[in-house]
Amino acid sequence: MSDNDLQLLSQIREFNTLHEFMNDEQLDRALSLVVKLIMKPDVPSSKAPALIVELQALSTKFAIAAATYATIESGPARSDAAHRKNLYFSTKEALNKLVDSLKYSAKANINGMD
Length: 114
What we know:
4 helices, mainly alpha, 0% strand
């Protein structure tokens, strides 16, 4: 097994931990899409727009959830609410970066810059 395979398995285990802790179907969907992109990073230009919109919508949902946990449902530093807030903020940021890279990739593919 290669180092990349071991890293992917480790991420999947971490994603399962997130699934169990967060209990959020949209987070599960985002993690599923990330795993699919890790396994097959070449997204056809025809499928990129729908994927970009879905990931950006999920990111927006996570931003709202993070803000909710930062304000309305805030808790002490090591509480579940604090952990959820941080996980939502981190996921939002990561998805935004992923969306940016997908936009760039789709644009490069359309312009024939493969």
